[in-house]
Structures are given as structure tokens and as C-alpha cells.
Amino acid sequence: MYDLIGDIHGHADELEQLLQTLGYEIAAGVYRHPDRKVVFLGDFIDRGPQIRRVLETVRPMVEGGHALAVMGNHELNALAYHTGDRDGPGEHLRRRTPKNVAQHRATLEQLPPPELRSHLGWFRSLPLWLDLDGVRAVHACWDERAIGQVAGGLREFGGASDDFLHAACRTGGPLFAPVEVILKGKEGKLPQGASFRDKDGHVRTEIRTRWYAAPDGHTYRTYALQTDEIACDLALDEQVVAAAAPYPVAGKPVFVGHYWLSAQRPGVLADNVACLDYSVAKGGFLCGYRWNGEPTLSDENFVRA
């Protein structure tokens, strides 16, 4: 069975505490459990003070067969940040704007260049989703159409190669939209003139939607995820409704991270959908879920550091 763990963002103390709470012990320098595996939901890097220790904990677990992991948007961002844009001499696929540099600064400061290159190579090996026996894991959104498109691209380009990154990380590229869905979730454009500020203080004109739920009868306020609190009670635009592909009520339980939720006590989003990102890098806590094969998820199975 699996223990799923959300976004860590360089918080090794909390990671080690959570692993120990879940019954994992160090043997031969690697955390392991006699009967269980961890599934990490991505976003190991950026923001936090202990990025090197996080990678030194997570990567050996995965490489030793004691854990599985999916790629987060911060791992993809790092790959794009360090991959030259073949159509823009001197540029990179992720531009070195002040915003992008600030987001990646903690990683650059904490990882010596040889170590960073090694970890970037490991990031390329991470799957963008896992469809396991009885359970699924993806960083932000399980969408069959997007997964099918990206799976085709990975086959065509031989994995997360430079060719794949060029197709996935440039706006308008053939894989840009489906990769955005998988690693960042679905968004719905707000009506003209409506906006809000996110947790980083950026002005947003789109909400991150409750992609797992049917949009019928929702307004922008009620269809936005918890972190996108917008005082807009207008009915959803037809484009937002048309883009929806609610997660099947009979689908395997699916676990995501990414969304910076905040709560004193974590809870499921739907009977078969749970988010495990409770904002450890912004004063929250590192969150896990002990999955024992149940098709209906329970609030009682969340574990926090």
C-alpha cells in the first residue's frame, strides 16, 4: 500500500518528521518501510531552506525502490530554466525574468552546479502521472484527454528530452496546454474587469477550477478552488463549462498537490479526490495520506508533520 506526500518545497525537517510518523526508518542511509511505499507528488525544490536535504532524502528512496514520484511544475520549470531556447539565442525556455529568478533563487543558492545538473537529469526521469493498482497520482489535475496528448508527446520525443521541453514549455507549443493542465490544473477566465490577488500577491484574472466537479449550477465563486477566493457570483462562461471534464465518481482515488490549501485539518475534495498541498512553504504543514486500498477516501487517513 501507499503513503502519499504532497509538495515539500525544501522543508526537510518536516519531511523527515512525516516519514517517521508514518513508520519509515533509515536503513543503509535510506528511509524505508517493510510493507509500504511513498508516492511523492512533486515540487521538491524552490522556496524552502533545506532543498539539498530534501533531494538527498527523496531521490535515494525512489532510486532504491522505496518510493515513487511524479514531476511537479517546479521541476518542469527548473528544466525549462536551464534549457536553452534553440529559437532564441542566449535565451532559455523559461525566461530569466525577475519573477522566475526569484522563484528559483533558493534552489540556485543551495545546490552547487554539479549537484543541480545531476538532479535536473533525475527530474527528466520522473513521470508526469502514475496510474497504479487502485490509485492515481498527478501533481495538479487528472484529465484523460491531456494525459493522452502528453503520453503521445513523450513517445514521440523519447521522454522529457529537449525536444519534449520545447514542445511543452513554450506558449503555443503543441504540448503546452495539456502539460499546463496536468501540472498546474485547469483555469477559467474571469469576466471582464474581475480579478483577485493570489497568495504571492500577483493579480490574477483567471480562477483555478474545481476540475474534479461538474460545473453545472456553479458561479465563479463556488467553482474556484479554495485558494482562489473571488467575490464573483456570475454564472460560469460557456467556455469554462465546455472545458470541464469532471473526474468520474467511480474513478480510482486520485491524489494531487499544487494548490496551497489552508486548513487546520485536511479533508478530501471529493469521495475519490484529495489534495495534499497544505502550504508547508507558507506557514502551513506538510501533509500525507495513508492509503490502504479504500475506493472512498476518508478524512481520518490524512497525516500531517
TrEMBL record:
Top enzyme category: hydrolase
Domain Calcineurin-like phosphoesterase: 4-130
InterPro entries in the record: Ap4A_hydrolase, Calcineurin-like_PHP, Metallo-depent_PP-like
Cellular-component GO terms for this entry: cytoplasm
GO molecular function (one): phosphatase activity
Keywords of the record: Hydrolase
Pfam families hit by this protein: Metallophos
UniProt keyword Ribosomal protein present: no
EC number, UniProt record: 3.6.1.17
Cited PANTHER family: BIS(5'-NUCLEOSYL)-TETRAPHOSPHATASE PRPE [ASYMMETRICAL], METALLOPHOSPHOESTERASE
Descriptive protein name: Bis(5'-nucleosyl)-tetraphosphatase PrpE [asymmetrical]
Provenance organism: Urbifossiella limnaea
